[in-house]
């Protein structure tokens, strides 16, 4: 087989999950074969909700501004409407999409049709040398470990010419959607958590109405049925109507309804408010059940994600967002294995982490209707001012409501303890590991904060400063003891010298500097696998980068002054420190996974304890081969070359 | 002469001033002939600094995101470097570009080359049906009032074909730059405030250096000369070097220097830091003196703006910004005259307002060097926490420094009292006019604040909610007395009923609703000349738009809840009210000119006093013809048709 038929990965399907995986791997230099069986990209309709946490992810990928340029609608609140006397409807409550206690950087859902989102991803993929081929489909695949470098053979068929192309690849990924050839071939079963399935009608259009909440997300229950209203870009509005349910006595999963029928139903539900359509942009009827795949992979060579693995009702707007998380979760793990940094068995964590979230999503989907038929808690009840008080913890309803808000906005993606996410069950323990922080919880994201970048005095979002580059992020908080004013950088100096030792985890995976120009690279000056952001408890003019240990000077663009007042920590002298729970003298090194989730937090102390603890954590999953020999020693040459594939 | 040779305006020059004027008038439906004598748009280099206030203006025009997509450098601070012993240089201070006390929404200067900015404006112009023709020049023009509709005749010559096109126009505008044919033909003199002229070298490129402040704006004085450093997009950096001055004994205004000479000089100045160039993108040497045109127009038909009217050193980064202000100042005045709303004599205020600012700029330019050779005041000295205290007012140095910061960031554009900008000298006086507010100062912009938009619960920037649409803005603050919680909207109801009376200034300029669909138009539901934004002292869920007076319901997308905590008014219960100085019970109607500057602020009271005061203010410059007869009465038909030309 010629080299031109060898790929690092073959991606089937150019929906959100396939595209985002393709974005990451194309950027990192992998050879990607990407196909989709539709002749053209999505023109309109389909998924449309980007949740608060997904907006952060897109921002971290540098894709947010391209998507926001399409001027999505922004949903800050959800309104609940219920039947009222005389056949009327009345608003019974509203609730924030991303309540204040979640402390989201972008506390809203952005709504625009999937085609516009896909367009931004496709442009990025093309810029990085990958083409999404259409219309192509997959007709056969087989994993054969006799060929260890490219174990998967795949037949791809061009649906225009019917020509079949046989290729070999290291990985095959199916992002085919709910009807997946790959999943079927693997014999992976879909398990239904809720046996009830529904037929939904969904319609995008420009409506003319005097209904006051047409610009908000609404759930309307009326004596004439129920509807969900979602505002959209270009003055549009999406309506979801349930057309049939498997609990109906005469249920027919192929039951359908015309546009006119749905509009007539909507008019009755909206009454006494009037509603009419200037135009309908998209309309679809589809049956959907709740389901979850038993496995996301069988052999850690053929993977699946997105709707292939989990389907559920559109009500909570989670589909595309879950797909995004699937994609980035797999992307960095494949990258770290293929570039020689991590052991192959870390790929097992993809299914473990993502399937757990899908299960949570389905549980949530089940509870959703039940929850909102109850009362909505008042803002005071859910206020974070008393987050820790007993009275609130005693209120299970409020706790459940908060958990659900957290989940739908994407901040509830909390991976459980494993080799990446430290806990007291982790095989490595060290006295300097922070285990009791309410702010730095392994498996969850790091709290947002504003800081001043020293090199250019720009006010920036610390949590977003290191881009999604496939590297582990070391967020170092200097602590008040290490403030330049107090003359002390001893702990920082010790950290730098420990990291700089040739046999440290940091140095072992470094590139030979001679092989590339790092003058303008503040993210990976030493290694493709580590990015550092150093935040000092000081005002910007007090910080002189040239006085810092040499290791940090290479990160000159990633050194920050903790001198901005934070709305969520108004009383703190050093707000960014306070927001990660560092209110005393000490600093910390917070290890954040490439996808933004905290791995472990370690106290920053004088001596070599901090580096020791870091070493132990990374030893848990980095390749032993990198720990020995000259080939991958100081320069990490092999790892680097492979990452540049 | 055929209709195809008749224009509303002929614009000469496609630099910042010509382009922005063209953007506005093309959007508002005017027939624009726009030419430029360069064969292609600016490719790189030239002006590059967009000041904080200009960013707000571009945001208000909907142009900011297109410009920001080019990822300009952001300058938050300026650093001052001075000679130190042993031929070294040392940082002697830094100061914010837009200090906190200015309360700018975007407290930084955005830096990118003029070509990228022009591209965004040119695309907008084209979208609205105007084409910038190149290479064309103007060869003759003449104003002949015998043809009152199109009094100006202009000869335009295509520089490719040498064909001359003679056209007639209502207005001619010269944005030709410092060497202006129009200005010369009119015999308008340039007056030099400072007789000294300089030769400047300017170079854009990617530098490699260990100079720590290369990402900040710096003024470096060394024993080997002086240089100004300005960071730019794409890792570039601009250097300004003064090559010659008319105070030199052997001054030659044609003195020049090669790239290599400037680089060699820069290396000496930067020492002991190293500096080298990866590439040079643009280089230019130009002589420049300080000058200001005696007149901006002679007959109020032929106008000039931008560098035609004022030239000065590039040090303070004011050129393009002053041009932007010139353009928008003229745009709305031409629009209101041509659409039949304002008396023709309001055009006189263009020269009065803009020439005053140019004079201030030149004064400032003179003082700039002197100022920064003195010490920089400390942040505590300039803190706004004591803005009103006597101790600070006693410190003329701090006062001058603040005034200069305010001026360079663009917030010092403070127009003096005239028919638009109320003061105690204004011909119309009324007891309800607010004359003593420190927050609402006629001639200056309105303070920024965050509010919640009621219709969709979006958190928005109130000051930017009404776009630059050529309409007067009525920012209505309901006041605490009118809070829905207190059951009271009496003052608002009286205001609405007063505005709705058929003979009110508001109704007289309204369009016949039957002529257009206002269902989706929250900015001009009643009239092209007025936009309303109503802010209520209440939380969003307390506000029910359908309970408001009918007039305001038409502005459903412009009704706001003053329920967001403002960083600059943390203790205020109603922060947006507090930020405009309304701390008591009463509300106000703040009349803001189409360009965002406050015209007059009037207390909101029960009864007809508020409308009476508004009436008196608008009577000062609106056309009498609109006050009579059925033609322009209720429907304002004629005015509307003319605005749609």
From TrEMBL, chains A, B:
SUPFAM superfamilies: FAD-linked reductases, C-terminal domain, FAD/NAD(P)-binding domain, Thioredoxin-like. GO terms for molecular function: FAD binding; oxidoreductase activity, acting on paired donors, with incorporation or reduction of molecular oxygen, NAD(P)H as one donor, and incorporation of one atom of oxygen. Residues 413-625 form the Phenol hydroxylase-like C-terminal dimerisation domain. InterPro entries: FAD-bd, FAD/NAD-bd_sf, Phe_hydrox_C_dim_dom, PHOX_C_sf, RIFMO-like, Thioredoxin-like_sf. Residues 8-364 form the FAD-binding domain. It comes from the Eukaryota. Pfam families: FAD_binding_3, Phe_hydrox_dim. Keywords: FAD, Flavoprotein, Oxidoreductase. Belongs to the PheA/TfdB FAD monooxygenase family. This is FAD-binding domain-containing protein.
């Amino acid at each position: 087989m010629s080299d031109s038929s060898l790929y690092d990965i073959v991606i089937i399907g150019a929906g959100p999950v396939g595209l985002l995986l393709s974005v990451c791997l194309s950027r990192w230099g992998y050879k990607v074969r990407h196909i989709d069986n539709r002749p053209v990209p999505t023109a309109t309709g389909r998924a449309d909700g980007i949740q608060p946490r997904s907006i952060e992810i897109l921002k971290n990928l540098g894709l947010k501004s391209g998507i926001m340029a399409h001027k999505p609608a922004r949903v800050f609140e959800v309104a609940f409407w219920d039947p009222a006397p005389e056949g009327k409807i009345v608003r019974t409550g509203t609730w924030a999409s991303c309540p204040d206690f979640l402390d989201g950087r972008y506390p809203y859902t952005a709504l625009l049709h999937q085609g516009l989102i896909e367009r931004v991803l496709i442009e990025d993929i093309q810029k990085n040398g990958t083409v999404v081929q259409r219309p192509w489909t997959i007709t056969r695949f087989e994993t054969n470990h006799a060929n260890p470098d490219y174990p998967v053979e795949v037949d791809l068929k061009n649906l225009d010419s019917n020509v079949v192309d046989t290729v070999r690849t290291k990985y095959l990924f199916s992002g085919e959607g709910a009807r997946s050839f790959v999943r079927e071939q693997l014999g992976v079963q879909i398990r239904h958590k809720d046996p009830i399935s529904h037929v939904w009608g969904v319609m995008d259009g420009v409506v003319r109405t005097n209904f006051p909440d047409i610009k908000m997300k609404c759930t309307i229950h009326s004596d004439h049925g129920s509807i969900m209203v979602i505002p959209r870009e270009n003055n549009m509005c999406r309506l979801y109507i349930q057309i049939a349910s498997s609990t109906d006595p005469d249920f027919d999963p192929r039951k359908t309804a015309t546009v006119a029928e749905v509009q007539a139903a909507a008019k009755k539900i909206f009454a006494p408010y009037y509603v009419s359509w200037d135009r309908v942009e998209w309309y679809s009827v589809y049956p959907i059940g709740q389901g979850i795949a038993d496995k996301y992979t069988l052999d850690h060579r053929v993977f699946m994600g997105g709707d292939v693995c989990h389907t559920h009702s559109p009500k909570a707007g989670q589909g595309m967002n879950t797909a995004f998380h699937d994609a980035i979760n797999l992307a960095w793990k494949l990258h770290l294995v293929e570039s020689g940094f991590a052991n192959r068995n870390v790929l097992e964590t993809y299914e473990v982490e993502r399937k757990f979230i899908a299960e949570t999503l389905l549980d949530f989907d089940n509870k959703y209707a039940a929850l909102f038929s109850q009362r909505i808690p008042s803002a005071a009840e859910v206020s974070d001012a008393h987050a820790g008080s007993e009275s609130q913890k005693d209120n299970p309803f409020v706790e459940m409501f908060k958990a659900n808000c957290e989940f739908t906005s994407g901040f509830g993606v909390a991976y459980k303890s494993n080799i990446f996410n430290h806990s007291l069950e982790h095989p490595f323990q060290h006295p300097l590991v922070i285990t009791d922080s309410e702010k730095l919880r392994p498996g969850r994201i790091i709290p947002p904060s504003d800081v001043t970048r020293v090199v250019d005095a720009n006010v920036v979002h610390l949590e977003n400063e290191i881009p999604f580059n496939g590297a582990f992020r070391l967020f170092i908080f200097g602590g008040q003891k290490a403030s330049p004013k107090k003359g002390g950088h001893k702990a920082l100096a010790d950290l730098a010298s420990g990291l700089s030792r040739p046999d440290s985890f940091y140095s072992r995976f470094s590139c030979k500097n001679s092989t590339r120009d790092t003058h303008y690279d503040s993210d990976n000056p030493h290694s493709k696998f580590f990015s550092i952001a150093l935040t000092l408890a000081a005002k910007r003019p007090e910080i002189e980068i040239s006085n810092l240990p040499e290791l940090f000077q290479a990160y000159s663009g990633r050194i920050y002054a903790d001198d901005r007042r934070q709305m969520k920590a108004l009383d703190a002298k050093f707000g960014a420190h306070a927001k990660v729970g560092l209110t005393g003298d000490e600093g910390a090194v917070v290890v954040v996974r490439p996808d933004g989730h905290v791995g472990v937090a370690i106290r920053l102390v004088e001596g070599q304890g901090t580096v020791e603890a870091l070493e132990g954590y990374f030893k848990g999953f980095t390749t032993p081969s990198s720990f020995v020999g000259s080939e991958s020693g100081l320069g990490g040459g092999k790892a680097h070359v492979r990452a540049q594939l």
